[in-house]
Amino acid sequence: MRVLVVLSIAGIVLLMVLGFAAAARRLLDLRFGTVRTLLAGALAFGLAGPIATALAGAVSRDDPTLTPLWFLILAGACALLAAMTFLAVTEALVPTGSVPGPIELVRSLRGRVSRSRRYFAIVRILVRHGLGPYLRGRRADLGAPSGRRRLARSLRLALDDAGVTFVKLGQLLSTRPDLLPAEFVTELALLQDQAAPAPWAEVAQVLAAELPGPVDEVFAEFDRTPLAAASVAQVYAARLHSGERVVVKVRRPGVEDVVERDLDIVARLARTLHSRTRWARAIGVRDLARGFAEALREELDFRVEAANMAAVAAGPDRSPVRVPAPYPSLCGGRVLVMERLDGTPLGAAMTGGQEATDAAADRTDLARVLFEALLRQIMLDGVFHADPHPGNIMLLADGRLGLLDFGSVGRLDAALRASLQRLLLAMDRGDPLGVTDALLEVVPRPDVIDEQLLEREIGRFMARHLGGGGPAAGARMFTALFRIVSAHGLSVPPEVAAVFRALATVEGTLTRLAPGFDLVAEARAFAERHFAARRDPGTVRRLAEEELVALLPMLRRLPRRVERIVGAAESGRLSVNVRLLADDRDRRHLTGLLHQALLTVLAAATGIMAVVLLGHESGPRVTAQVTLYQLLAYNLLVVASVLALRVLAGIFRRDG
């Protein structure tokens, strides 16, 4: 019986708490977290009794016009006001969503522990490679080249030791001379994506989960010794039952969890830098981190790589350069089965002596074929190999070239390809104004830019690098162009950065393959062959006719519209509608000012009310010394102080 009574009382208390919580949230007309709302209801329930007692004690028991019901209603209203005040104050101090709830906190606890361990491991790696002083706030000695080279080498060794994600990050940074000094770019370019092979037992589990059947049934032969092993995947040689020789690329077991954990660290670091430093916001560090994460996740999904291979191979006239064909029925997220190309990696062929290339075309011809194939992919097809280093290029037995590893592929839409084509044509004509206009179409245009200065610097760039400077000029061309883009506050989109990265990478490959290869002359020759028709009078006339046909509907309507505008102006009915605050940034700025002003008014009004109530000695007594009005005044003082401090914090805050 006693247990039943206790349960009944607990049920009534719970219902009253829920009722207070629901009423407070409904009156405020806002959504709050469950825990915060329940705490407000519990606070209201706890205050309802003492408030009712205080009110009842202050009124004469002999007054027949008042009943206990009025005391309960008034006490409930005061308790509800306290709950609403609690919700409003806690929302001002700790906005909803700024602190994870208990369920989210429990879910993320395991991830936090794992991430903390990874943080400590990375810090140990950095300290071991001599980067500890920089972690403690010491400024890097970047004034002298020797200091930059020393720091760059320590950074490369640390990234290499930190694992696959940071190796890939270093490789990406090595292609961004607009962000890093030349010493860092050169040093980070030495990062190699290599690792010891994983045990066959672990690889066999991946194959069993991804293939349509056991390995021995799917393949007639399967060599269990890997041809190559990198930090993301390792490659095996096999033969199908139909007799075709294939290559099987298998993602290393467990690499996805490591990459996701490290990408989370990179994203958090990028958000911290973005919020605290101006230089990070200037270069768009959050967008860089986001693009890097997307590219790395795509590289981990071999289905994306198979689609990339098919897209690159789908372009016209691929006879000089071969792309291995994938076998879609055998490909999955962690396994890629593709055609095996017979030949020698270009890097090994270039170091194996001249006899390694005697059976093929001349080195210069090979360089020309490779460069034209990449330009065709970028300028015409819109799908291109973004990492054409010597390890990803094969010298085939029939004298042709083969492209491998399509985990990193760039894509350009038609509008961006047209802008790049105009950029190349303007460079071929030696037109700085045309290059400047095309460049501003390729990159996002900032709000404020000195176009005259940009045009002059582009002109000096073209005179230096496109004025017959030879191959040495071409070796510095992309770095110089990146510097100009960065100096004028132009942020390079990820797809455009992939173009420059591919061109810079193939430039190094061509320099090794055919020393003296004139990159600039070949690019001009490519533009002459493929885009010269646009300057033909017949082509220009045809394009003008097509544009005129497209403009005819608008031209037919133009006289009527002009007549309506003139008529409205003559009769005084002409008006112009301007959408104020159409820009989201302006709306956010004005909203912030209004919030600050509103909080200031509320703080002042609340403080004045508190002072007025403190001056009243009469009223119901809560204690022998404090009246109910004074108690409310003290609470209002607290609310006024909170609002005033929030306004002052917003005024004194300075972005880093």
Overview in brief:
This protein has 656 residues and is an alpha+beta fold. 64% of the residues lie in helices and 7% in strands.
Entry keywords:
656 residues, alpha+beta, five-stranded antiparallel beta sheet, four-stranded mixed beta sheet, 25 helices, 11 strands, 64% helix, 7% strand, extended, Ubiquinone biosynthesis protein UbiB, Kinase-like_dom_sf
Describe the structure.
- The protein has 656 residues and is of the alpha+beta class.
- Helices cover 64% and strands 7% of the residues.
- It is built from 25 helices and eleven strands.
- α1 (2-28) crosses α2 (34-57) and α2 (34-57) runs antiparallel to α3 (68-93).
- The chain is extended, with a radius of gyration of 35 Å.
Looking at the structure, what is the overall shape? extended
Structural class determined from secondary elements: alpha+beta
Overall pLDDT: 77
From the alpha carbons, calculate the radius of gyration and give it in angstroms.
Answer: 35 Å
Distance between the termini: 66 Å
Fraction of residues in β-strands: 5-15%
The quaternary state of the protein chains shown equals: single chain
Number of strands: 11
Portion in helices: 55-70%
Low-confidence stretches: 59-67, 353-361, 469-473
Family: Belongs to the protein kinase superfamily. ADCK protein kinase family.
Domain ABC1 atypical kinase-like: 191-433
Keywords: Membrane, Transmembrane, Transmembrane helix, Ubiquinone
Transmembrane segments: 6-25, 37-57, 69-89, 597-616, 628-649
